[in-house]
Amino acid sequence: MGFKMGIVGLPNVGKSTLFNALTKTAAAQAANFPFCTIEPNVGDVAVPDARLMTLAKIGKSREVIPTRMTFVDIAGLVRGASKGEGLGNQFLANIREVDAIAHVLRCFVDDDVTHVEGRIDPVADAETIETELMIADMESIERRLANLSRKLRGGDKESLEQDALLRRALAALEDGKPARTVEVSEEERKSWRMLQLLTAKPVLFVCNVEEASAGKGNALSEKVAAMAAAQGAAHVVISAQIEEEISQLDAEEAEMFLSEMGLEEPGLDRLIRAGYQLLGLQTYFTVGPKEARAWTIPKGTLAPQAAGVIHGDFERGFIRAETVAYDDYVTHNGEAGAKEAGKFRVEGKGYEVKDGDVLHFLFNA
User: Fold this and answer.
1) Which of 99, 21, 19 is nearest to 257 (CA)?
2) How far apart are the C-alpha atoms of 122 and 13, rounded to whole Å?
3) What are 10-24's pLDDT values in tens digits?
């Protein structure tokens, strides 16, 4: 289990370049004109996690299988997208299908790359797209409320809940706030997600800077950081150009290139960590002589549901989970050493899996 993140932004901000770098393919055509991406490109990428290789070495695993995440490169939105401008309706439909949005903002100046609105202002760009998504949400809500009226007269409980949620979202949107600012209780969360509102999706602002600013950002990315902080949103600074160059190198060359650029890690690593944090995800591991494998689960997941990520039978027939924390597994050189040190635990159905747990599940088939 991973998650699906849609890459959105105005034309010519570096979306397709970033997608190409992330997936190490040329599937997305990167060109200096609007709408070079017509169909959403989808790419699965391995989630980099140094812990997995460490565990595989200790467990003498023959195969290493990282968890994966999906990126969707969605064509550039423009002003008027909510009214169908620039193939807007199709693009808005693509956004509904993702779990979170990586909003790429142009934070570099390059006279050779045109800007669809003729100026470089990432905050204004963000507002343009947010406005289009909010308009689309308001129109969608108004249609749904009209369709619900007959069911409401019949006292349908599900329709009453949906009507209340839609009206709360509409009130926020009319106040100029995205739907993600609406407070939703745990009991309402499932129904809220089913509304598939565009502005309810978590947003990660991706500041695409020039190569020289990849480490610390620049004045433009600082403006985005201030905007993100004011919204309670996350942001990350990346040079899509550098990421694309790194994607063409082998591991040793990439490490040398990063060192020369004064960077500690690829931007992809930062982007995925920020995405995990955005969606409240974490990783647990299974380790054996056959394979060492990483699995993604939401924070707060209980042991039976974590087991179900591997196979539904594991959850249905769950008996117990044998677990060692990552640090204990490494410190004591594996499961046997952890047992001797008293760091091996047996947990039941109520155990909340922690990030980095090394787990073995026992179940009835």
Assistant:
1) 21
2) 9
3) 888 888 888 888 877
Q: Tell me the per-residue pLDDT of 325-353, one tens digit each, with 9 for 90 and over.
A: 999 999 999 999 999 999 999 999 999 99
| Single-letter code of the amino acid located at 301 | T
Contact yes or no for 26/94 (Cβ under 8 A): no
- Burial of 336 (C-beta count, 10 Å sphere; 0-12/13-18/19+): exposed
The length of the chain in residues reads 365
Confidence of residue 263 (pLDDT cuts 50, 70, 90): confident
Sign of the CA dihedral with 135 first, then 141, 146, and 147 last: positive
Token reading at 361: 């599940």
Mean pLDDT of the chain: 86
Q: Which residues contact 320 (CB under 8 A, 6 or more apart)?
A: 303, 346, 347, 348, 361, 362
How many C-beta atoms surround the C-beta of residue 279 within 10 A? 19
The secondary structure of residue 103, as a DSSP letter, is: E
**pTM recorded for the entire structure:** 0.82
Residue with tokens 């609105």: 117
Task: Record the tokens describing residue 88, joined without a space.
Answer: 């807007």
